[in-house]
């Protein structure tokens, strides 16, 4: 990628403009950082990723950071997965380091695009747990008032904090992740908090546990 | 001779209302016809005023086109009609936090409200036969085009919660009291969730073939289902890359009706052609459905149909479920016996034989009689 560290590119995802930040230039497999719910991309390389040998990028999800805010919400984790897919195709593939909801999206991306995801490191952060599956959730809040159009989009916080993540759904993506060329342990669970979807994928082949995020990144960098 | 919605031009050039015959040159363009009618004596009785507004509305029935951001209004003439179909008496926009929702009403504003909720890929105009029957029975009937459907805004994102929130915005603009709701297909499933989460909003609920069961899930082993899901995921993701450029294929009015007929194989072509005049717009190169081209039939996600049934059995308000016995492409594939264990205590299920997914369109009189009885 012909970009400079500290610059931001705008990628098109339907009607949304996604901000992809270049934190470090270089050659080799890129590392793509995925932030937590309500957060935004860091402006510098975080310590956990400092030893990554290749270029490092960070993506602002729809309604977060410097990405645009759609009117009226309608968020789902699948839409954030599509955000990542736009960035993955742009970069030609990457290793993913996800925080909170970004960890769940990293899992979905590893299953959806096993040929483009060289490894997915799942870490703690906001939005890791998701919502319950059998609960009816409706908000009577009809407007976000002055917060409309600003990031993080309140509709994203409301809708994505209760996005249902059934265990068997997460397991399906873990199984799909081992169908690609990077099929040896493509997922690393490095979070301390263990919501049901994490417990479910822990049982799946191809999922590493017991490593720190740094160790997992070193393992993927060495491949 | 041509039809103006429910009002037929009796002789070429004469539109009959309650009070007067208004002479209109049938060869003149719609704008000229409107001018002639505008100069004619105004009707006096409330009903004739209503007829008058209907005639005006039909003559000025128009399509909107966008040229470089500029909205151009183009008259349309000689459009198909359908027996019993009436366009709403009132239409307006409701703002749902920046999303403009096209909202429609049939009947008197002073009558008690009744909300109609359409299904996926449909629009409020699919109630053009059913709604007038309910209005004539004494209801202020309110419906709306869901976001991305009909004349409502196309948005960047679509979701179950957002659809329910839009519904609540429309409903709150009419009343904050519990009101009866009749909902079809996906609209029915949406309203089951709303009824469960906000039971104080719905006094009685009629669900027309919107009760999903697990039956659509193929009877395949786990690993096969995983493989099938992989295809759905990559297909959907590939589409998202091109979504910004997506557009609906143009065609003649008849072409669009025939296309819809593949999804609605039991509905008459005359009805489908009528729907085109409402749910599609006429561009220079032909008609196009207004449905947002970035929306895709099917897809994947964590949602499981049985969650809806778990909500249904928990409902406390009076509930009527209607289901046809013939499976169709747009239906859920649910059989009456799949639903029996899930009918709530205050509810009942009616299976209507030899009818498909669009129960209220195939049998408007039978279904409306049943629903009016239930609502009373």
Q: Looking at this structure, what is the CATH superfamily of chain A? A: Alpha/Beta hydrolase fold, catalytic domain
The beta-strand count of chain B equals: 16
Q: Approximately how much helix is present in the residues of chain B?
A: 25-40%
Shape of chain B: globular
* CATH homolog superfamily of the largest domain in chain B: Alpha/Beta hydrolase fold, catalytic domain
How far apart are the first and last residues' alpha carbons of chain B, in Å? 41 Å
Notes on the protein architecture:
The complex is a heterodimer of chains A (223) and B (376). The two termini of chain A are 21 Å apart. Chain A is built from six helices and eight strands; from the N terminus they run ββββαβαβααβαβα. The longest helix of chain A is centred in the middle third of the chain and has 15 residues, at 77-91. Chain A has 223 residues and is α/β, with parallel strands linked by helices. In chain A, helix 1 packs across helix 2 (101-112) and helix 2 (101-112) crosses helix 4. In chain A, helix 2 (101-112) links the parallel strand 5 (94-99) and strand 6. The longest helix of chain B is centred in the middle third of the chain and has 21 residues, at 222-242. Chain B has two domains: 3-75, no CATH class; 82-376, Alpha/Beta hydrolase fold, catalytic domain (Rossmann fold, 3-Layer(aba) Sandwich). In chain B, helix 7 (253-263) crosses helix 8 (269-279). In chain B, the strands form four sheets. Chain B has an eight-stranded mixed beta sheet with strand order 7-8-10-9-11-12-15-16, sandwiched between helices. Chain B has 376 residues and is of the alpha/beta class. Chain B is built from twelve helices and 16 strands. In chain B, strand 1 and strand 2 form a beta hairpin. The chains are: A alpha/beta (223), B alpha/beta (376). At the A-B interface, helix 1, helix 3 and helix 4 of A face helix 4, helix 5, helix 6 and helix 9 of B.
